[in-house]
Every structure is written in C-alpha cells, then in structure tokens.
Amino acid sequence: MAFLVFVTLTALLHVTQGVLLDRHPTPFRHCCYGDETFQHGQVVLALQRACLQLVCEDGKVERRYLGEPGQRECCEFDGQLYPEGAELTAHCVTLECRDSCWHPLPAIADCCSRCSLYNDPHITTFDNHHYDFHGVCNYSLAQKGFTREAELGVYGDFRSCFGRASCIDRFTFVNDPHTVVALENGNVFTVHVNGHPNHVGPDKVHALRSAEKCHPVLAWRTPWGTSSPSCLTLFGSNRIMVQHCPHRMDIIAHASHTAELNGLCGHFNFHKDDDFTDRSDQVHPLSGFPLAFPTSWMTADQSDPVCLAPCRDCHKDNTTDPCTATIEERRGFHARCNATLFRLLRDLPHLAHHVDDCAFDLCVITAYGRQEEEAVAWLDRVLEIVKMEIFLHHHTDGNGKVTPSPTTAAPTSSYNAK
After folding, report:
1. pLDDT tens for residues 63-119?
2. What is the pTM of this model?
3. How far does CA 373 lie from the centroid of its chain?
C-alpha cells in the first residue's frame, strides 16, 4: 500500500513539474482577414467614427470598442484609438482629437530642440551651433547612434549649385524600419511612403500610407512664415518631427532622444561643445566650415558613385570659405542683406547669422556669373526663410531652448484626456 502511494505521488510530481517547466507554450495563432495575415494582438482594422477596432485574438478577429458600443467620433494614431477631446501631448506638438480628426496646436514644446538646414546649405545644430557645409552626397542629418543602418533617422541629398556650394535636393525620413518617407525639394506636398505616393491636401491631417497599409506618421500643411500653407509637417510616432519648406528643412527632436541622435545636426545632448562628433565617436573642434566631421556622416546609399570613393583630404578638420570676394565686395553684400533683413531681425539679435548667410549666398551667386535679377529673386527667398525662422521662434514654448539633464525621462503616458 505504501509503495502504491509513493508511485502515485511521484507521478503527480512529474506531471506538476512538467507543467511548471514547460518552456515551449503553444504559440498564439495568426488571423486571416481578406488577403492578409495578422499576428496575435495586431490591429486588423480601425473604424474611428464607430470607436471600434478589429483585433487579432489567438486566431479570431475580435471587436474592441473604446468606451461603450455606440460611442462616436474617435481618432487613431499608431494603432491606438483616442476619444473625442483627447490630446496627444508626449510629442513636440500637441494634437487634439475633434470630430474624428487630429488638430495640431501651433506651439512647439520647449523640451524639444530644432535643427535647421536651408539654402546652400547653412546648418544650425540641435544644440545651436551654426556652420556651413557644401558636400554633394547623401548624409545622415539626424540618426540614432553611429550605425550605417539606423532604425530611425533623417537623411539628406545635396546637389551642386553655383559652382562652389551645394543646395538642398531630397530628404528621407525613417520613422521605423517599416516606414520610409521620401521628400523632394521641388514638390513639397507629395511624399512617397515605401515608394507609394501620398499627396497631402489642405485643411486636413493625413495618415500616410503605402500600398500595403497605413503608417504611424501624420502629415499636414503648415503656414510657416507665410500667409498660405507652403510647408509640410511630418509627425512621427518616434517623437521626431520634420518640417519641409521650399529650400528649407527643420528637424525637431523630443528630449527623450537626448544623447541618441547624431549626424550633421550634431550630437543632441543640449551641450554644444561635442556637436561635431563623427561616425567613429570622435569629437572635432567647432568651426564655420568643417570637413572631417560632416563627411564622416556620408551614408552607404549614394546615387553618385564618386561619393563611395575614398576622400583624400577628408581627414582635415576644416575646409576653406568658398566665398573668394574682396573685403570691399563682402562689405557690399553684407550691407545689402542687412538692409533687406534689418526690419525683421532688429529685435532678435540671436538670428543675426542670417545676414551673414545671405551675404555668403550673394557672394557665390555673383562669382558664378548670375544676373542681378537672380540675386533679387534669391533675396526674396532669404526673406521668406527668415520669416519661417521667426515664426518658429515665436511658436516655441518659452521662445527658446531649455537645458534639461541628459537623463531626462520620457513621459509615461502617450496622451492626456481632457
């Protein structure tokens, strides 16, 4: 009898141990919906006006309501539904849900920092160092880490212009490994998502999509500095915003990316001294015309084979000023630009570098043999770009940058309901 009890207890123990030590649980089943297959937990379909999502639950497509069945007017972003009146606040601008549509508020959060590139190109880093670079290849402007295959980032192609400079041509915004948005300087309101064209119309926030699906990037037209919307804002789920205007690009990064982003926009950490950190994590001295630092951020994706060849002099920290005008000529360019921009900049001395940039532009345009009417047209362009800069300045909370600790934590909630 005792032996029988022992055998029974041993068998039960083995069964119990088998349950406790089962390291290979049965995997959740996928769901079929139409011609597509979805993983467990994945949103199959979102019906914003019914506040309803269809979600794959272990092989079955189940309904999931936000609130009670019958509730109406919800918004969707990155696979999540939000009720009427909710606000997305954990990004660089706040989006408010009204009538099943997202409505962006104009203020840029002061916990965010902005990198600007404009014209031929003049660059201001996230940490506010201003410099010129005139390469004609594809470069990482702001990417996560130092790898050549970053999981998020913004990249720029520059083309030769005026013989001695390079101008903005194309940009690529990688929100995540499955969402690649291509932008062209000459066609601001049409973008391509994974090769699929999206035209962003007026008076609406658009959810970008590819041929396969919607992506967690919103887009809308923005009147940065002008009376009519002439710029495009991309709002990514990765807490990076891109604002693309004719001849200008602004990249706005949330403080949650502190010490993560690198590239021509500098090492983002609210400290200027290490802005010129190259791809090998070496810091170069700050200057107005750097060479070794920016060329280190050339990408492996180049349209011109010359850009893939070794660069003989790219180990040098600096290059020369492309403007070869005399001192008197430079004074003339500067006086002309100052007369054009003084009224706008007289109360904003921290933006005075735009006068120097304008004088440089006139120098290279003149040296290239351009006519006076082209110089006048360029001054009009500079005027619009400065208006955009002032608009951004006035719509940033606190009218400037904050200097949080590099260990600033990301918000714990993705939205606040009213």
Report:
1. 676 766 666 678 989 888 898 899 999 999 999 999 888 999 989 998 999 999 998
2. 0.82
3. 35
